[in-house]
Design a protein that fits this description.
Blueprint lengths: L1 E4 L3 E7 L1 E7 L4 E4 L2 H8 L2 E5 L7 H12 L3 E3 L13 E6 L3 E5 L25 H14 L3 E5 L12
Parallel strand pairs: 2-7, 8-9
Antiparallel strand pairs: 1-5, 1-6, 2-3, 3-4
The chain binds iron/sulfur cluster (SF4).
Iron/sulfur cluster binds next to loops.
Length: 159
């Protein structure tokens, strides 16, 4: 019997927190012990758990993870996607980023702590913004909330 990690999940790790199952729906990480991670890394749709050389402990872990909906029995030819495979980020765990993408705004509230609409603290360029996006990806940030100013006044917001 072959098991495979459900498409909803991917395996990740960070400095000091190297074993996590990330739920893509909720952008949340569930940290697991080393043995569970070892077992999960074998749930790639290729390893046959009915073979006698597979320890009973791994079989038991597979059943438990299947009960929890983390893995399921692999269909013929089904293999885990590359982006679900284990990846270790060299930095500390970064659950979320709260990013003020602009100091500009189309309102003029008197209490504004950003001093919008004038972007008192300056604006970053398009290239700088895209570089930050790439850096968040490279750090394994699970989610990012965007604010301003008014985030939508950036011409490159959707990009
Ligand atoms: S950023 Fe918020 S508080 Fe500031 S002017 Fe715009 S809407 Fe008002």
């Amino acid at each position: 019997m072959r098991y495979i990690l459900d498409k909803r999940f991917k395996l990740r790790g960070w400095d000091r927190l190297p074993n996590a199952v990330v739920d893509r729906k909720g952008a949340s990480a569930h940290f697991v012990d080393v043995r569970t991670m070892e077992a999960l890394r074998l749930r790639d749709g290729k390893v046959d758990f009915s073979l006698p050389l597979v320890p009973e402990e791994l079989r038991e872990t597979a059943r438990r993870l299947a009960d929890q909906g983390v893995v399921h029995e692999a269909r013929q030819g089904e293999v885990v996607a590359d982006n679900q495979r284990y990846r270790l980020y060299p930095n500390r765990y970064m659950k979320s980023v709260h990013w003020s993408v602009t100091g500009k705004c189309n309102c003029r509230c008197r209490h504004c702590y950003m001093s919008a609409p004038d972007a008192k603290y300056g604006e970053i360029s398009h290239d700088e913004a895209m570089s930050i996006v790439a850096e968040m990806g490279a750090c394994g940030a699970l989610s990012c909330s965007l604010t301003g100013g008014e985030a939508l006044v950036r011409d490159d917001f959707w990009e």
